[in-house]
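Reviewer 2 asked us to include a model.

Predict the structure of this chain.
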Amino acid sequence: MSNPPRCLLPTALALVATAWALHGCADPPFPPANVYDAAFTTPASIVGFPDTFTAVGQYAQLTLVTDEPLDDVPRRWSLRRVDTARCDSGCGELNVDRLTGRLTATPTSYVRRWEIRAEIGAQLYRDTVVLRQIPRSFQFDCRFCYPTDGFNAPLPFSIQSARLFDANGVALRYQYDTAKSAGASLTSRDPTIVDHVDGVWRSRFTEGSTWLVRQQFGQTDSVLWTVRQVFAPRLTCPDSAALSDTVRVNISVVDATGWPMARPVTITWRLTLWRNSIPSSRSISLDGIFIPTEAGYWEALVLGGRNEVRCGVHVQ
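Predicted model (structure tokens):
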């Protein structure tokens, strides 16, 4: 067998080298990863949001972080409420933009737990978040503040008199009293008029007005409250008197139940002389004594509580 011509040997060696080089650069015999294949899996986590949304309007930009170079694969975001507690209205919602993954909270005072979902291809990733409004400020609301009649009685001071707001200044849709649970301090500028006794605002034993003060969330607000006693004065005048006599108008006071009151009350006296149907004012002492100096009908009037009573004396 004859040897090949020398001119053909370099050509053969070049072909062998080229074939080896092409074999060395070829892809391995494995199928490429495909996120649209249900059998494909890769670890990932949802990041970019707090565990709890605590105020209306709070938002977060969600991101799905994976260990694979899947940045070009679109993400689809969705939500599912986990809890099933009933709420007639104002339960609160989380809104999510399906394309961008931006979460936004809406008003609620109910705790709501949500499942966040992110999809890439056939893969579904989940995480959870809690939605609720937490009060961060308050304002005393005097819609329920009006004068109280009677001593040592609970004030009709509704818990709604303190309006609560979240961190963004949005009023909580469902108000509830945080005086005990959130460390409020409740005091009265004058405890003899109104005081906070065993968790209840009570009128005490003095008429007048005082400021009720609430301190909470690092702020202070107050409302003005007036207390006055409910009583009914009763007057007794002599039927007639002579000029220059000392006339005493007897007064007794009973409370709202009809029992005589021994404690001092605030009353206002008025004395009027009627002559020919023309009234003119006269002076009378605080204890109901006056001396008539003219003939006519002398009428004594007392204002006390919400009552007005009169009696008269004919002077000749």
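The CA atoms of residues 43 and 66 lie 6 Å apart. The longest helix spans residues 9-24. We have added this to the supplementary material.
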